[in-house]
Amino acid sequence: MSNDTPQSPTHDQGLFKWLWRNYLSRFWPYLTLALLFMIIEGSMLGALSFIMRPMFDTVFIEGNEGAIRYVALAIFCIFGARAFAAVGQKITLAYIMQKMAAALRTDLLSHLMKQDGAFHQTHPPGFLIQRVQADVISINEGWRALVMGAGRDAVTLIVLMGVAISVDWKWTLVALIGAPLVLAPAQLAQKFVRARSREARDLGAKLATRLDEVFHGIVPVKLNRLESYQSRQYSALTDDLVKAEVRANAGGAIIPGLIDIMSGLGFVGVLVYGGSEIISGEKSVGQFMSFFTAIGFAFEPLRRIGAVSGRWQMAAAGIERLRELLEMQPTLVSPSKPKPAPNGVPEIALKDVRLSYGDTEVLRGASFTAEAGKTTALVGASGAGKSTVFNLLTRLVDPSSGSAEIGTVATADMKLEDLRGLFSVVSQDAALFDESLRENLLLGRTDVTEARLQEVLEAAHVTDFLPQLANGLETQVGPRGSSLSGGQRQRVAIARALLRDTPVLLLDEATSALDAESEAVVQAALESLSKGRTTLVIAHRLSTVRDADKIVVMEQGAVVEEGRHEELLAQNGAYARLHELQFKTSGPTADSVALASQGRRRKGSAGAARGSSRRDGSSLLSRISARLFRR
Ligand SMILES: Nc1ncnc2c1ncn2[C@@H]1O[C@H](COP(=O)(O)OP(=O)(O)O)[C@@H](O)[C@H]1O
Ligand SMILES: [Mg+2]
Asked: Which ligand has the shortest distance to the CA of 510?
């Protein structure tokens, strides 16, 4: 129990209050109804034990046959009412539980989506999925146990005790003799259960994270033959989970076990103490039966109430975790007095921006402007901070000093949703969802006419590959769009951006992962997209940006050069070096790679066709380079 923080009763009360205030209290009419059902259900056992006395004394011993039908009718009514109340109680509770889980999950999702990038970097998807799915269930089980304990079981006990006391209060005292003995061990068991449950919740989150990573990375897992490695890692975690869960459950079982022992002691006590009173005729057999039935019936609810604390400890571990998450506030938020976003196509300016991830400074006084309606390219070595500039503009991260302005309004002065509404971002990750192509394009919008959609599909060159898909726009694209090729996914992303029709366009290596052929098509689609918008483009291949109105060269988080392609080449500085490096390493090789792949693709056709395929390849290449290097 080393990782156990002190648990005071007030802490637990706090957790329950939090749950009540935020989620349970809105269901109070249903809860009242459920409690009503529970009270009926609970008191019926008392009634049954009470009826033992006339059954034995009046019917059996006095031999009053006329009373049989009344007693029988009463017993039937008792069972009928109990059945009715039990069903009603279950349905009502199920309704509350499902509604509450839905509310909690929806709140969690919208809260988690608001969190900063840094939060999501330290809280992996699987972990969050586990919180949203499994922890909510454990909480539901906890409060249900609590409500059932307080409602049905407590009422049952009170009524049964009432019957027992009505027979003989001294017998009742004797029956309860063992109670104080179980209190201290029960306390210990509770603490133990809480600690193990916390462990189990955290392990559950780790397991979910690993599953998420494996299934998302299933291709690299297969290619690197990591199946057995991943299985081993997973099974080590499941072993720990098994330990934690079994221990938590064992701890939870100890408490009802203790209650059994206590009850046994009570039973024996009453038998020894009260037996002589029955033999001597001081008490009737009916009284005796009534008392023992009451005490006998009391076992089950007592054990259940005993188990409540264990259940509650498990739930409390879940509530703690969820409340922690829900109380975390994002730092990247809209300003309290936001300015309106700029109208029209804006200029973009970075002013002496410094930005760090943790202790590492990634932007070191970066400044540049991107003119309205023009294309500005950001180039520089990998890790120079280009993507970070995009993250800064869209406020996925905030700078430590300096500012970014869009049409003279600082990004920090705009509402987040207004700011992000200015941009369309196309990057290597097209972020497709496991829905139909149409749904992926419209993303819930209903204001797009079929004609407009056609126009966009045309401009984004989606129409080029649409005929190849089995169901056209209704084709399911698979998880993350995996049934489309890279170039097709990019064109979908471009079509989305066209539909968004924002004044600013951010392209982050949008074509870097594509082969030459797809790159040419995507490049053409991007050109139609960037018309009339302020476009910032990050490109790995300099060939794709030599047409840009301005090229900004970044090195280690600062801007070292800017100008047009020729000017920069003439300066013979950083850009010229980058250019030379690429020309030397990627120029001829890229060609031969493209040729080789052309050749491969046609393998299987007659060997004589080889020569012509080579010619096809080179003519295709020349078409593409004519397009890319068009001056
Ligand atoms: N979320 C992050 N946390 C910590 N460091 C990061 C994060 N994102 C990027 N970096 C670091 O910041 C530097 C710049 O990254 P980036 O802007 O992506 O470079 P690039 O110019 O290749 O787009 C890199 O050194 C990278 O490791
Ligand atoms: Mg980058």
From this structure: 2
Q: How far is the CA of 211 from the centre of ligand 2 (A)?
A: 27
| 40 in contact with ligand 1, CB cutoff 6 A | no
Q: Which atom of ligand 1 is nearest to the CA of 358?
A: 4
Give the ligand whose atoms come closest to the C-alpha of residue 355. Answer: 1
CB neighbour list of residue 370: distance below 8 Å, 6 or more residues apart: 347, 348, 349, 376, 534, 535, 536, 550, 552
pTM greater than 0.70: yes
Spacing, Cα 461 to ligand 2 middle (Å):
25
Q: What is the CATH number of domain 348-624?
A: 3.40.50.300
542 near 579, Cβ under 8 Å?
yes
Pocket test for ligand 1, best of 359, 362, 536 (most atoms within 8 A of CB): 362
What does the alpha-carbon distance between residue 486 and residue 206 come to, in Å, rounded to a whole number? 31
Q: For 329-359, write each residue's pLDDT tens digit.
A: 988 889 999 999 999 999 999 999 999 998 9
Asked if the model's pLDDT at residue 466 lies above 70, the reply is: yes
Written as six digits, the tokens of 328 are 């975390």
- Please give the Cα distance from 427 to 424 (Å, whole number): 10
**pLDDT per position as a tens digit, 536-562:** 999 888 888 888 999 999 999 999 999
User: Per-residue pLDDT for 321 more than 90?
Assistant: no
Per-residue pLDDT band for 224 (boundaries 50, 70, 90) equals: confident
CATH topology identical between 15-326 and 348-624 = no
> Which of 21-30, 175-184, 358-367, 609-618 bottoms out in mean pLDDT, i.e. has the lowest?
609-618
Question: What confidence score (pLDDT) does residue 588 get?
Answer: 44
- Whether residue 215 has its Cβ less than 6 Å from ligand 1: no
Which pLDDT score, from 0 to 100, does residue 585 have?
59
**For the chain, domain boundaries:** 15-326, 348-624
- Answer yes or no: are the C-beta atoms of 125 and 212 closer than 8 Å: yes
Residue type, 112: L
Output the CA 337–ligand 2 centroid distance in Å: 33
Considering the domain 15-326, what is its CATH architecture? Up-down Bundle (1.20)
Query: Which residue's CA is the closest to the ligand 1 atom numbered 17?
Result: 385
Task: Tell me the best of 388, 391, 552 to mutate to test the pocket of ligand 1, counting ligand atoms within 8 Å of each CB and taking the most.
Answer: 388
Q: How far is the CA of 541 from the centre of ligand 1 (A)?
A: 19
C-alpha–C-alpha distance, residues 476 and 460, integer Å: 19
